Amino acid sequence: MRQKLQLCFAAVTILLAQNTSAQTPVYPSKPIRMIVGFAPGGSADISARIFAESMSRELKETVVVENKGGAGGNIAAAEVARADPDGHTIFYATSAIVLGPLLYQNVKYDPFNDFSPVMLTATNPLVFLTAPSLAPRSLKDFLTYAKVHGNMNYGSSGAGTMTHLPAAAFSREFGLESTHIAYKGESPALVDVASGRTQFMFSTLSAAVAMMSDARVRALAIAATQRSPLFPEVPTFNEALGTKDWVMGAWQGVVTPKGVSPEIISRLTVALNTAMKDPLLKTRLAPQGTVLLGGTPAQFTQYMKEEQIRWKKIITESGAKVE
User: Fold this and answer.
1) CB within 8 Å of 265: residues ≥ 6 apart
2) For the purposes of burial, counting CB atoms within 10 Å of the CB of 322, is it exposed (0-12), middle (13-18) or buried (19 or more)?
3) Which segments of the chain does DSSP mark as H helices, in order?
4) What pLDDT band is residue 111 in, cutting at 50, 70 and 90?
5) 32-124+250-318 domain in CATH 3.40.190.150?
6) Closest by alpha carbon to 76, among 120, 45, 119?
7) How much is the pTM?
8) Count of CB atoms within 10 A of residue 51's CB?
9) 291 DSSP β-pair partners
């Protein structure tokens, strides 16, 4: 009798295990799309591709980066918000995800109701760039030059982005007459400031490294608490102008559409944590000036809320708007 009960128990255990296995889909079961809201070559794109490569190794599945530029990252964000919450579409988000709703009237996503934050991955300091053909060799000289010559055009990676708003705030604070020209990513904006079509730009350090190294653009200041070891000759804003308010970086992180299961969020978190510890990833990001961050989904959610409050104030005070 006991032997029969044991056999029956074993059979039931096997059936339950098979049923549970059948109900728990394997993740990932196909390549993962990592959407980036800007053109190839910019800060977010550079970091996304490096993280995607490392995550692919951990997840044993390809993570494919797709660039969906336009509307300051809002087009990409809206696409991810509508995607199936199966974990096979993720968003390599930037600060634009919280800035868009502050600037655009018809944004088709809510940064807190339509996404599940996974991890704050990195930040990159901003640098103030001009064309080498311009006379100013310091930020103070540039301010004098701009006030004498009148309207200055400045480029950005898109309206409402972290390369647009600081420039608008800068123009307002220092009394510059300026015109914003929005591009679909940092790379085309950098090309035009290098050629002199635009006169200045706030760029992420990672996107500008190559052009700064080749002297195709001139960096007059970095919006950080200390100079970058990559370009120690470039002063901080505090050193250049005596202001402590200009400490700004373009942050990045991974989010999924709302509704992705906690198990998949956990799987992605593990993959990102593994990537953070990857010596190769650190070696590749360091020359870009990128600072790795990390943390939990809850910490990322709180950070996003704090950033939206901070930039709402800056937008209101600067009068920045999308054209």
Assistant:
1) 116, 118, 256, 297
2) middle
3) 2-23, 43-59, 74-82, 96-103, 139-149, 165-173, 186-195, 205-213, 237-241, 262-276, 279-285, 297-318
4) very high
5) yes
6) 45
7) 0.78
8) 26
9) 123
Asked if 7 contacts 19 with a C-beta cutoff of 8 angstroms, the reply is: no
CB atoms closer than 10 angstroms to residue 25: 13
> pLDDT-derived band of residue 21, with 50, 70 and 90 as boundaries?
very low
Instruction: Indicate the residue type of 83.
Output: A
Residue 19 has pLDDT above 60, yes or no: no
Domain boundaries, the chain: 32-124+250-318, 125-241
- Is 125-241 a CATH 3.40.190.10 domain? yes
Whether residue 87 contacts residue 28, with contact meaning beta carbons closer than 8 Å, is answered with yes
- Residue in this structure with the two tokens 């198990």, named with its chain if needed: 263
Question: Would you say the CATH fold of 125-241 matches that of 32-124+250-318?
Answer: yes
Share of the chain above pLDDT 90, in %: 71
Burial of 212 (0-12, 13-18, 19+ CB in 10 A): buried
**DSSP assignment string, 232-256:** TTSPBHHHHHS-SS---EEEEEEEE
**Collapsing DSSP states into helix, strand and coil, what is residue 50?**
helix
Token pair of 71 as six digits: 């509307």
pLDDT above 70 coverage of the chain, percent: 92
pLDDT digits (tens, 9 = 90+) for 174-225: 999 999 999 988 899 999 999 999 999 999 998 899 999 999 999 999 999 8
